[in-house]
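Lecture notes, unit on binding sites. The following record was shown on slide 14. It pairs a sequence with flavin-adenine dinucleotide.
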Amino acid sequence: MTNTREQIEFDVLFVGGGPANLAGAIRLMQLAGEQNLELEVALIEKGSDIGSHALSGAIMDPVAVKELIPNYKEVGCPIENDVRGDSFYVLTKQCQYAAPFVPKYMKNKGFHVISLSKFVRWLASIAQDLGVNIFPGFAGTEVLYGQDNKTVIGVRTGDKGIGHDGQPKSNFEPGIDIMAKVTSFGEGAKGSLLREIATKLRLFDPKVPQTFETGIKEVIQLPESNFFSDNPVNDIHTLGYPLDLDTHSGGFIYEMKNNKVSVGLVVGLGYHNPMIDLYEEFIRFKKHPFVRGIISGGRVVEQGTRTLGNGSYYTMPKLAVDGAVFVGASASMLNAPALKGIHTSMKSGMLAAKAILEALSKEDFTQQTLYAYHDMFNKSWLKDEVYEGRNFAQALSKKMPAKIFHLGAQYLTRGRGFVDKMSIEKDSNTLSLLKDGDFQTAERRYGKHDHDDVLFLDKLTGVYMSKTQHREDQPCHLIIHNPELCVNECLKDYRAPCTRFCPGNVYEMEIVQGTQEKRLKLNPSNCLHCKTCEIKDPYENITWTCPEGGDGPKYTML
Ligand SMILES: Cc1cc2nc3c(=O)[nH]c(=O)nc-3n(C[C@H](O)[C@H](O)[C@H](O)COP(=O)(O)OP(=O)(O)OC[C@H]3O[C@@H](n4cnc5c(N)ncnc54)[C@H](O)[C@@H]3O)c2cc1C
Ligand code: SF4
């Protein structure tokens, strides 16, 4: 058993192996190569492999990958399909109505349908060939600061082999201190290290809080002859059912290769009804006659869940501090109206890489120097896209018909709308108190659990299909700050919504043996790392932290 903490030094450290940081790492090495500079660069990823925690729709606008790797198709970029045609439907309980036109943001003809897991694995292989040291299975759990207590000087990775009681076991391995002149944080939506730095260094403007959506997605294997055979349309978006038009949500169906299809439902976490069960809504979406018709005869081959930030421009943090930059979804780099964050995240990583290289050549890693990234952001197409969505989430949070008026005005004025810098509630503040009858309505809504283990899976089978695993004997990575609150207030006021917004069945209310008392029971091994609980809990009583590196889902094609 070793207790000494190792320290390793790099020039640049990337935390998170998503498209933002991988594109950043590749661009950094390309630029360094052009200047004959030798750099020591590392990238850590909490998943057991690059791509194992990657989940997206996904339709990718190729603008960023073209800039980064102009011959991306020739060098093996894994593309599932090209979009042949788009369609957009409003769903009622039994019918679908094709919209008279497809909104400009949803016009994807010529873009690529990809699996993000496969795409980031490919990016990682390119980064590795350029000399980036990639360490999957390492979760960044603590930010390291310099003596001034504000300059980021690296990241500590999580200890391995700690028992449930917090004591080291015989296989204990202490985490490593990875020191770097510059650290690029690209942890995706709701990054846990970003949360820590943001609190310490006040990165966010509290007036417009970051807001989120949760997406549940499956890859379904269809029979050889299916809806898409000879169909000019292979990119479908829906609005409405299973939720109402007041609730911000939407479905997507994208044709992948080899008769597979990507099917997902995204729900804005600003919803009001505490009885909404996100997973059951996804099942209801799949059972809608229109969707069922597309996927019938199919078999679910993988399932997963992830949140995405939809806040856009007004919710961006400061993009740099002394010793660090923030890229990708963590930094609100999303084209919100288009539900596209892959190309925007990549571009942010690439711009940050350029600023990092300038900082390295000046040997100056202060916020002032790294802010070149922000200046480049302001001059690039990335800003135009992120800026256009600046009031979009706020408009979606309104009820009908105000929602339509705001969205329409924003559509015609490139995002400005009637009110520029619209306000919005934090997602944790939007649940309404439970009303009489809410429970009965929910029972009717979700009562019939006719899951078939093939195409309509129950929650636990869904977790199984995400291949999620955690070492059982480790401290719980979900911190419930005040367990009493769960029973004394949350259960009464909202009927424990964590048992419904968590798609992994991690939270359960149980009766304490031999008493009438209830308590919250956690099944952290089921956790899909989506982070919905930290965002939506009405008392902000849950904090998500990284479990042991390598644990969690093992996505291969999401
Ligand atoms: C359901 C859904 C549908 C979407 N559809 C589309 C679409 O069709 N088109 C599109 O362009 N975009 C889409 N997006 C958005 C897009 O996927 C994201 O914007 C994009 O993946 C963000 O990239 P990123 O690199 O910032 O973060 P991520 O892709 O989230 O990657 C972050 C990585 O960092 C790792 N990580 C996090 N914390 C740590 C830590 N502390 N230590 C080590 N590793 C860590 C994570 O495991 C993960 O691998 C969708 C998103 C969702 C959820
Ligand atoms: S515990 Fe939280 S992060 Fe884990 S699956 Fe449930 S909602 Fe998602």
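Take-home: Residues 453-544 form a domain with the Alpha-Beta Plaits fold (CATH 3.30.70.20).
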